[in-house]
Amino acid sequence: MAEQQHKVCFMTGGSGRLGKQIASAMAREGYDIFFTWHSSHAEARNTLEAIQAISPSSAMVSCDISNVDEIKKAFAEFQARFNRLDLLITSASNFFGTPLPDVTEHEWDRLVDTNMKGTFFTMQEGASIMRNQNFVSRIITITDIAAELTWKNFAPYTASKAAVQHLTRVFAKVFAPSILVNSIAPGTFTINPEWNNGQELDDELANKIPLKRMGDPEDIIRTIRFLSQNDYVTGQIINVDGGRLLS
């Protein structure tokens, strides 16, 4: 394996709507990108081709993040291609409503196994590589301001995101000073056009936000860029929510 010249980013959920934009942005920042995908090979292939136009050495792997064996296999493939890991971004996530008191074990497992268990073991695998490097590397978890809110119809989801925020702080303490670990908690964003119920709903949601607008993926990307460059921030949960938690 040739000596790696570029910084390298491992990212879960790199073919999703937000993930694709983050991956492309980090490629433009000079990173080689290695991302996981799960549900759509065609979408993942389109994402990879777009990224490779910027970063030809970038690659992808199929991985069910809820399955620890698949996470380990993904990292084995990563290490066969790359000899360094500068940045790990955990973007893979499940999100759907689960009204109480009718939550099933299957629904719980789908949310918690991907969002919490999968993120934990991804962080652990990444940290095992990073701690042996002679330079500072970074882990960024993508969570949700819902971790601090009481959403009555999303208990397993919000609990899983709160757990990841706690894990972020634990990893930051354990692996300092060689690995900086932070979390970005988005607020209300317009990412999935299938969820757009019209301008009236957008206006209603925006009016609940002190900055009077919905979030944009670029708001997240700028925060990732900041964390990837700053060397004196660790163990922090950065809410990118336009002040939503102030409401």
UniProtKB/TrEMBL annotation:
<dbReference type="InterPro" id="IPR002347">
    <property type="entry name" value="SDR_fam"/>
</dbReference>
<protein>
    <submittedName>
        <fullName>Short-chain dehydrogenase/reductase SDR</fullName>
    </submittedName>
</protein>
<dbReference type="InterPro" id="IPR020904">
    <property type="entry name" value="Sc_DH/Rdtase_CS"/>
</dbReference>
<dbReference type="GO" id="GO:0016491">
    <property type="term" value="F:oxidoreductase activity"/>
</dbReference>
<dbReference type="InterPro" id="IPR036291">
    <property type="entry name" value="NAD(P)-bd_dom_sf"/>
</dbReference>
<dbReference type="Pfam" id="PF13561">
    <property type="entry name" value="adh_short_C2"/>
</dbReference>
<keyword id="KW-0560">Oxidoreductase</keyword>
<comment type="similarity">
    <text>Belongs to the short-chain dehydrogenases/reductases (SDR) family.</text>
</comment>
